[in-house]
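User: Elongation factor 4. Structure?
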Amino acid sequence: TPPELIRNFCIIAHIDHGKSTLADRMLQLTGVVDSRAMRAQYLDRMDIERERGITIKSQAVRMPWESAGQTYALNMIDTPGHVDFTYEVSRSLAACEGAVLLVDAAQGIEAQTLANLYLAMENDLTIIPVLNKIDLPAAQPEKYAEELAKLIGGDPADCLRVSGKTGEGVEPLLDQIVAQIPHPVGDPDAPARAMIFDSVYDTYRGVVTYVRVVDGNLNPRERIVMMSTKATHELLEIGVISPEPVPSKGLGVGEVGYLITGVKDVRQSRVGDTVTNASKPAARDLGGYRDPKPMVFSGLYPIDGSDYPDLREALDKLKLNDAALVYEPETSAALGFGFRCGFLGLLHLEIVRERLEREFNLDLISTQPNVVYDVTLDDGREIHVTNPSEFPEGKIASVSEPIVRATILAPSEFVGAIMELCQQKRGQLRGMDYLSEDRVEMRYTLPLAEIVFDFFDQLKSRTRGYASLDYEPDGDQVADLVKVQILLQGESVDAFSAIVHKDKAYSYGVMMATKLKELIPRQQFEVPIQAAIGSRVIARENIRAIRKDVLAKCYGGDISRKRKLLEKQKEGKKRMKMVGRVEVPQEAFIAALSSD
Ligand code: GTP
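Assistant: Predicted structure:
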């Protein structure tokens, strides 16, 4: 297809504003999927995505569309919908010339709408504002058209109105995509340069890589080079998705499609990388490549220690499809053998954990997630701490922690409550704008560690669910951080220690000590629970001793009954972990580590 007849676009929207439903309608109207084959949310393939209604992996579909007597090829590139995947979103956007900015006409602009809009603007995309769900009785298209026009400029009347559900307004939208979004421009005679915006592992075909060709051509059977690694591969297959993969004779300037080289690991085909011809390599890549950087770490342990080899195997498998997942073996005195895993963020953690439990049938304990700290010691050495147990004792010159730029959107009546929360969470207000008289956008910098803790739940509860949040990493910042250790009878329990701000050390210590006092059963002797910073104890609770003699109940009688009781007690002990002399039930660990 000549570039003049190609339009590359994506739909950007806040979660639940109807992106997938609209995409489904477009597939139907362009005849790519017929109504009978249509299942809701055709593009969201993973079960877990479907159940949670979130899109994790982007895909690209080519749709033919006739407008003003010409047949155009519309490439719709689906973007992942969550903060953890900002980099993937930015690469998907970089593969487009335009974006449909979709806003629920009953909700208005939300934090993700804005975050994605900013990303689209950074990529110089043409923005088409669209209000969705106009079939809803609660829709207020006039009001929100004003909001949108104020945000991106232009006339409220130019804001399109559609219903992804009924299909109303979707054909005019497709025409506007053709009319407003510029066609791709590139040099057809130059060495090929194609940007990878997604790569997905497929059990049967190996890694399927999604690319947008910027210059030149990619052809089947030729050798290609991944420019960041210099690795060469043979192009076994190249084609477009419409809606199933269709092999083609090659991809030229402006085209979007997939390629298969037989590699088995998405790490060999990285999002953001540039693909070029091995015979005629491009001198420069397209820029913008970034290694995925894990931001949040957590220990994953099998509840049943004998599942450890299965957990390792499951992680090895997941890794094939997830370039951002990192892990290494770890041993914990309390939890046994497990893995220290790094994730892009909390959702990523949750997704991986859930897949391990669901697809691989594992029961897991995950330790309280923590961010990565850079510790500078008195002698100038630097340590990269991904686990509280690695945090040095004393001799620390400074500690820095990752911070994020957060955008919070909420009805203006909640400004006070949000400010109070952000203050508690060590946030700094960077700016505030009224989108309309009753809706406000607040921009904060916040430590990622505070967000990882329970920020989102608190924000929701303080704003009765009305606030929305989006954030992206914004470097590191020095902070006054300490490690709080929890000791049972003088023994430190690694799984419970945490790195927290100095001002919060006390409340963390008290919270953990109180929790554990409730969770750990009384023993034959008194058990002190202490929270300490170094050798300084900051909180203390006691579990009082009991004397429990199971045999006493039996009045000497029947010996087999006594044996049975002893057996039973042994059974119970198996599920106990020993910390020094203290028996801690497995459930206590799980309960103490769960954040609620
Ligand atoms: P993510 O892909 O998870 O970001 O969500 P989404 O933006 O794709 O939302 P999705 O298409 O899953 O729609 C969210 C909810 O809104 C679903 O329950 C849809 O049925 C509903 N919905 C979507 N479009 C419309 C519409 O035009 N009218 C009405 N009434 N409901 C809609």
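The pocket of guanosine-5'-triphosphate is lined by residues 13, 15-21, 41, 53-55, 81, 132-133, 135-136, 163-165 (CB under 6 Å). The first strand starts at residue 6 and ends at 13.
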